[in-house]
Design brief:
272 residues; alpha/beta; Rossmann fold; 10 helices; 51% helix; 12% strand; binds NADP nicotinamide-adenine-dinucleotide phosphate
Length: 272
């Protein structure tokens, strides 16, 4: 079960393709000759990327500007693709963001928007597009989680919980879809320099100082690990050895020992 071959009636739907890791994943898929459907809210950035990839790689690219917090807009994606005569054979659920700070200072609307984007949209798009993949006995899914999935994160509780959900969900549907010729991979990056810090309201210097340099992996390399992970039918792809080690440590450490340390170092938590 490697990545499906190029086909004029099929598309790779990439969410969060207006920035960061999503731009790089879209570029790698286009370089393999695969047609793309780019999704995010910022239409101008998607159009710019679409033009670049179409002229550089000679592939078909369309832009479907969508706010993924909106269930109606998500449902509409399937109809819009049907009108274009396209079915999704590669689904990359990459759009996402984090809030920052303790639960008692959280903005309720922002927290709910995060869960809708990071969790609800992942589930919804998998539910919308897996029936076609199963029918055709062909498809690949890449769900972008995080090393935040391997342990709770005081200071980013909703984000850590959301990514733990994505990891668990990806493992489970991988098993359901495996007999039907469809692969599912969870990409779990550590820190990456993208628009992520700004969206979370962290100054880039503060974000850089929050994790030692060895954990940082460039967005292009993260994307390569994700796309190769899909191609190799891996269950989980973690970019960089230090992040693999920290994920294992986070997974195995007793919570009562680990979590006070995580909380003490977290830039989003005030001193108690
Ligand atoms: N950077 C890191 O350190 C890091 C580490 C681990 C995991 N990740 C994960 O990697 C993924 C990509 O993040 P990134 O680092 O590339 O950050 P980024 O540069 O901020 O990109 C986030 C993307 O998500 C899209 N998005 C956000 N809210 C959306 C919404 N409501 N509807 C549609 N699209 C939406 C954004 O597009 P618009 O604003 O145009 O809508 C943008 O394209 C996320 O799932 C993130 O959690 C990042």
């Amino acid at each position: 079960m490697s990545l499906p071959a190029p086909n004029p009636d099929r598309t790779c739907l990439v969410t969060g393709a207006s920035s960061g890791i999503g731009v790089e994943i879209a570029g790698l898929l286009a370089a393999r000759g695969l047609g793309l459907t780019l999704v995010a809210r910022t239409e101008s950035k998607l159009r710019e990327l679409a033009d670049t990839l179409a002229s550089r790689h000679g592939v078909r690219v369309e832009v479907l500007a969508t706010d993924l917090t909106d269930a109606g807009a998500r449902s509409g994606l399937r109809g819009r693709l049907e009108e274009l005569g396209l079915s999704v054979n590669v689904l990359v659920n990459n759009a996402g963001f984090s809030t920052l700070g303790p639960v008692y200072r959280a903005d309720p609307d922002r927290e709910i928007a995060m869960v809708r984007t990071d969790v609800e949209a992942v589930v919804h798009l998998c539910v919308l597009f897996t029936p076609g993949m199963v029918e055709r006995r062909s498809g690949s899914i890449l769900n972008v989680a995080s090393t935040a999935a391997f342990q709770p994160i005081p200071g980013q509780a909703g984000y850590g919980g959301s990514k733990a959900f994505v990891l668990s969900y990806s493992h489970a549907i991988r098993e359901e879809l495996r007999p039907h010729g469809v692969s599912v991979t969870a990409l779990c990056p550590g820190p990456v320099e993208t628009g992520f810090a700004e969206a979370a309201g962290i100054a880039p210097e503060e974000m850089a100082a929050s994790m030692p340099k060895m954990f940082w992996v460039p967005a292009a390399e993260v994307a390569r690990v994700g796309v190769d992970g899909m191609d190799d039918n891996k269950a989980v792809a973690i970019p960089g050895l230090p992040n693999k080690a920290s994920a294992a440590l986070g997974w195995l450490s007793p919570r009562r020992i680990l979590l006070p340390i995580v909380a003490k170092q977290h830039p989003g938590l005030p001193d108690a």
